[in-house]
Amino acid sequence: MSVRTRVAAGAVSILILGGAATPALADTDVPVDAPVIAEGSSIVSDELGDAPSGGGEILNGVESIDELNEELDLPGQVDGPELPDEPLTGTEDLSSPTGQYCGSPYNFVRITKNLKNTMSVKYSTFVQNKRSSTMDWKFTTKRSGTTEIGGSITLGGEAKVLWLGKIKTEVTASAKKSWTSELGVEAYGKVKAGKTVYGDYGIKREKVYGYMARANSNCTVSNKQYMTVWAPYREGWVISD
Length: 241
Fold this sequence. Notes:
By secondary structure, this protein is mostly beta strands. It has one domain. It is 8% helix and 45% strand. It has helices at residues 3-8, 157-170, and strands at 13-18, 36-39, 42-45, 58-60, 62-63, 72-73, 91-92, 100-101, 106-128, 135-140, 146-148, 150-151, 178-180, 186-191, 196-215, 221-240. The strands form four sheets. Strands 1, 5, 6, 9, 12, 15 and 16 form a seven-stranded antiparallel beta sheet that branches. Strands 3-2-14-10-4 form a five-stranded mixed beta sheet, with no helix packed on it. It has a two-stranded antiparallel ribbon with strand order 7-8. The longest helix has 14 residues, at 157-170.
């Protein structure tokens, strides 16, 4: 059974993320070039501990042959509440049908719901402990990949710019148009006798739901098009057993 199935089924998981830090988010941040130690439910950066030592054997991760998951569930993620659809505002202009004037027509986007985030997996690995005692394991990313801003419908150049700006302003400032994962990022931990530990490394995607529309000069709205949109904003390990 792959880690993706286990995580989706509610297995205990550890989320170890690297990349740009965002204070508003509760995830533990670890620089992408720093190894991490995962044991039980704790997450500790390499500033607080060293890699397994003592001369004992370390189980190195074996690359999974499963198809990589573009929509890996992340621990603790839930959909946010529906947000109110605020009306457009403008200055008084009695010559317009609504008594308002919003200026020259323009396109805009609006987020109406913040969806639970997922991760686009770029490297998947595991270790199986066939010994009768607990052993140390080490995972190291050996493949890389890129995730770009996208949506449930095809986004044009203007739409990508508008959505990225909205996500950066209202959700997370670390969102990017494109993100390529790092190679050589390590994670350490322990695996109990007879158990298997799985690791997925990838790029976390901020996901929102909303619409793109046209604002007319009289403050009316037309051409609403609802869609789900995602933007990459962090990378890291998801560890599960």
